[in-house]
Amino acid sequence: MRMVDMIQKKKHGEKLNKDEIDFIVRGYTNGEIPDYQMSAFLMAVCFQGMSKEETSNLTIAFVNSGDQVDLSKIKGIKVDKHSTGGVGDKISLIVIPLVASVGIPVAKMSGRGLGHTGGTIDKLEAIKGFKTELSGEEFITNVNEHKMAIVGQSENLTPADKKTYALRDVTATVDSIPLIASSIMSKKIASGADAIVLDVKVGSGAFMKSVEQAKELAKTMVDIGEALNRKTVAVITNMDQPLGHEVGNANEIREAIEVLSGKGSQDEATVALTIASYMTMLGGAFEDFNTAYSELSEIIKSGKAIEKLKEMIRIQGGDDTVVDNPSKLPNAKYHIEVKATESGYINAINAESIGISAMLLGAGRKTKSDVIDYAAGITINKKIGDKVDIDETLCILHTNLKENKQAELTAKGAFFISETKPEPVKHIYEIIA
Ligand code: URA
């Protein structure tokens, strides 16, 4: 087989069989196929797409490129969730203790942030002492005894995806449905959970810009999950503005504490409760959505969920006193208010620009080797539909950097003000199961 023939076939929109896809993935992972040929192939996939069977074969080839986690020593149906990536997305921090509160085991593997999107592992490391690397034994013991554990992804999990994703990032080949679906689902399958809830983001801060595209991505991933015997549900959620009011690592921990204490913002709580409801239903705790949603809301009100968050921090070596005293989390030196230059209603907030501004303030990495400032971030004071007067604060930038003009301009440019009030924002668009 020759890679040039595979590129030619895909360029003409022909289907590749399992052996051909295995050849490409194996060859690229072990270095026999160079970056320039893989780039040409990925671009051909972006234009010509892939059939259901090709996407499924690509997913399996990614899974087989590395280790697979064996969670069989954990009792019960192990549930996992994954977000396609957003800004201010602290849903994992909320749903892990919430779902574990009803006794459903959550064995969570999470990533770090890159570019404008944040990562749960970075956020948790804003808590002093929190260990995001656990041995396989510690991970399994914690899930069995406490119903929850979270770790970063191990080095040899889907190495083919890791290498391909890095190439896609620099060759404008990220936003392809079969490529995103196989990348995400391969990691979830290799991580070993029995049931998966996917949070498919749509809007200005997401890879999918239209609900139609998001539905197609969701359907593709659910089909892959079902074909590989994983119960899979996708929830399509709004990413047309940052989720909640806080962006940045320590900031997002503070807001997750608020939601779990019953005091968080409406969008955040609605999305978290919806995702958690499907996780608990797949785990077998509840029969129907309405019961799950109201029982989980009660668990938050009762104080049980926030106690579970303390327990999660404690068992992973972190300082759990931050829950009662969030001011112990890292705080920035400078707080810059970004003001409105006209009056009206907030019509749109470009979530990607807010994510980029937060990254420029030190909350994220421009390159993989950058060191994160956990205190850096943005508080969003005005959200879509809010009335705003000239000179009122739109958002506050938190940073330890003296030079922050570019971040300020980027954040300011993210807000669009109109004379008329826009339609109310929908938090959840659709469920694909
Ligand atoms: N997240 C992933 O893990 N892979 C993609 O391709 C896009 C988002």
Automatic annotation (TrEMBL):
Gene Ontology molecular function: 1,4-alpha-oligoglucan phosphorylase activity; thymidine phosphorylase activity
Keyword Transferase: yes
One Gene Ontology biological process: pyrimidine nucleoside metabolic process
InterPro entries attached to this UniProt entry: Glycosyl_Trfase_fam3 (IPR000312), Glycosyl_Trfase_fam3_N_dom (IPR017459), Glycosyl_Trfase_fam3_N_dom_sf (IPR036320), Nuc_phospho_transferase (IPR035902), PYNP-like_C_sf (IPR036566), PYNP_C (IPR013102), Pyrmidine_PPas_bac/euk (IPR018090), Pyrmidine_PPase_CS (IPR017872)
EC number: 2.4.2.2
Annotated Gene Ontology cellular component terms: cytosol
Residue ranges occupied by any Pyrimidine nucleoside phosphorylase C-terminal domain in the UniProt entry: 345-418
Keywords annotated in UniProt: Glycosyltransferase, Transferase
Primary role: Catalyzes phosphorolysis of the pyrimidine nucleosides uridine, thymidine and 2'-deoxyuridine with the formation of the corresponding pyrimidine base and ribose-1-phosphate.
Record-stated family: Belongs to the thymidine/pyrimidine-nucleoside phosphorylase family.
Assembly: Homodimer.
Protein name: Pyrimidine-nucleoside phosphorylase
Protein's organism: Marinisporobacter balticus
